[in-house]
Amino acid sequence: MTEITNVKGLLIDLEGVLYSDNKLISGSIEAIKEFRKNNLKLRFLTNTTTTPRNLIFNKLQDFGFNIKEEEIFTPIIATKNYLRDNRVKRIALVTNVEIIEEFNDYEITQKNPEVVIMGDIYKNFKWEILDRIFKLVYLENSALIALHQNKYCMRDGKISLDLGPFVKAIEYSSGKKSILMGKPEKNFFYLAVKDLELIKDNILMIGDDITSDIEGSINANLKAIQVKTGKFQEKDLEHPTQPHYRIESINELPKLLGY
């Protein structure tokens, strides 16, 4: 495989690239060390909506990664920026209880909220909850924010439904499009690129999800590498959008970069 040159920054997905189902992917710690040694700028992207950023950081520290908290980008950060810029004060949250503290500056209510924010609540997605979201969006004209629209994820080592199908159900029933904050939304990638203070030609996106990571970043005019860990499936080889490179795991990336 031909070496990739002139790379100055990496956007690295977390789940499925550095670890999968709470298990460390072999060689990932050493790969990050190699990137640091070669002075690459790093940002770590995740569509996780069940955990605040400080807890994600603590988890990475426990794994042994040399990562700074401010290098982690989540849909929650993008959402808070949107609420601030649009002067939103009243919100309804359909999220994991652990991230409620991230929205302490807002009035959290089920009565006439300006915005309904949907995150992954796993097995708690029941008809009653979906119906309540539908009524807020359809009858009370609340805007709908989707922290991401992943179709599926890994749970207990198996492919499982993620947030996206439930967001699509609300969109279909209400006739209103959601405001997407996480991958594969272009603005999510643009935010990370801007923070790196590099031009796109000098940045690589590393991910396992053919849609959220690979197709999303390519649509944002980035070069993309897919790892065959995490959510990778053989049918990804037939996807209409293909990565610029595909490697077994992130531990092959230093060699691909010529280190």
Extract low-pLDDT stretches: none
In angstroms, what separates the terminal alpha carbons?
14 Å
Question: Under CATH, the topology of the largest domain is which?
Answer: Rossmann fold
> What is the number of helical segments per DSSP (H or I, 4+ residues)?
8
Q: Got a strand count?
A: 15
Radius of gyration: 18 Å
Q: Structural class per helix/strand content?
A: alpha/beta
Strand content: 15-25%
Main beta-sheet annotation? 6 strands, parallel
Order of strands across the main sheet: 5-4-1-13-14-15
Q: Which overall shape is indicated by the principal axes computed on the Cα atoms?
A: globular
What would you give as the CATH superfamily of the largest domain? HAD superfamily/HAD-like
> What is the level-2 CATH architecture name of the largest domain?
3-Layer(aba) Sandwich
Mean pLDDT: 93
Q: Helicity range of the residues?
A: 25-40%
What does this structure look like?
The chain is α/β, with parallel strands linked by helices and 259 residues long. The protein contains eight helices and 15 strands. Helix 4 packs across helix 5. It has two domains: 9-47 and 200-256, Rossmann fold, CATH 3.40.50.1000; 76-180, Rossmann fold, CATH 3.40.50.1000. The protein is globular. It has a six-stranded parallel sheet with strand order 5-4-1-13-14-15. Strands 7-6-8-9-12 form a five-stranded parallel sheet, with helices on one face. The model has no long low-confidence stretch (mean pLDDT 93). It has helices at 28-37, 53-63, 75-85, 127-138, 164-174, 186-196, 210-219, 253-256, and strands at residues 9-13, 19-20, 23-24, 41-45, 72-73, 90-94, 107-108, 115-118, 143-146, 152-155, 158-161, 179-180, 203-207, 223-227, 245-247. Strand 13, helix 7 (210-219) and strand 14 form a beta-alpha-beta unit.
